[in-house]
UniProtKB/TrEMBL annotation:
It is a multi-pass membrane protein. The keyword Transferase does not apply. It is found in: Membrane. Pfam families: MauE. This is DoxX family protein. One of its GO terms (cellular component) is membrane. The chain crosses the membrane at residues 55-73, 80-100, 120-140, 152-169. Its main location: membrane. Keywords: Membrane, Transmembrane, Transmembrane helix. It comes from the Bacteria. One of its GO terms (biological process) is methylamine metabolic process. InterPro entries: Methylamine_util_MauE (IPR009908).
Amino acid sequence: MKLITQISRLLVGALFIFSGLIKLNDPMGFAFKLGDYFAPDVLNLTFLSDYTLPLALFIVILEVILGVALLLGKWVNLTSWLLLLMIVFFTFLTFYSAYFNKVTDCGCFGDAIPLTPWQSFGKDIVLTVLISLIFFNRQYIKPLLGPGGQNVVLSLSLAGCIALGYYVLEHLPLKDFRPYAEGKSIVEGMKSAEELNLEPPKYATIYTLKNANTEESMKVNSQNYISEGWWQKKEWEIQSDESETVLLSEGYEPPIHDFSIEMNGNDVTDQVLAAERIFVLVAYDLNKSDSSAYAPLNEFALAAADQEIPFIGITGSLPSLAAEKSEAWSLRFSFGIIDGTTAKTIIRANPGIVMLEKGVIVKKWHAQDLPAFEDLAQSWK
């Protein structure tokens, strides 16, 4: 049992550190995921919606510190209890999400390793077993270093986590795992399975049928409903509110969807993706956007216009709010409207800038990191 406990200790500690650091690379993305869980139709914890980012930072840093403490053998009782409580909570959360199909990706490993809800639940079941072994056999866990060495390692770990979290929030994630990473083609990412000669996912609708005469109920999938002629049996009625769609077989799904830009009632997506070079300002929520960033962005947009390079903004906010902010900030460029989730996915900044060349993401900047236009133009010569 001692050997099993040590193996469990190594696996759990390493996994918690890895999981925490992956999410710490993109805490804003994990905060968005927490917001999904807090939504009214999921856990209905809307009072926490304004605190998703600090909560995300606290959780991911705690993950890393608990992993380090477990490997060091520091605070064994406290670490064991916290690990057990955390995994019980997350196991409940992933089961709830999977069973009720509420959140399709738990965000356990950020965008680096997307997991389905049931995969997330399975992972948490395994972790529950390993952490239970650690909890009930924690007498076998001995310190790897003396108290001084443990304190130094933990202090450095905490300081490193805080520094990393601060850096990526003030700039951009060190590693972008999303389909909008630099070098990715939005055009290619939008292509369907049929366009790429790949097999698409296959779905079926499960109908709940009720016999009007006997009150008997039964479920029939859409294929059998047609092939077996259920539609001809007038006594059997479809209960539309109880119908559900199920996945029959997995296949290729485009990594980019909902990338559609509307400006003044017109779809300008194709024009944006076809441009030789274009700068796109992305602000997923103009109410939460840093107003002080827009004066230098305005100057950049004017410099781009002098070189006949388009500069547009896109936002998930309502057109009326975009118009209001444009006037208040005296903006010299126009805003298009895009799906808010897509805007959040494109860049982890509010606002951020994306440079596209024929639909390919060449460069991304946090607004405060945008270089002088003249310096940028020199690099094109």
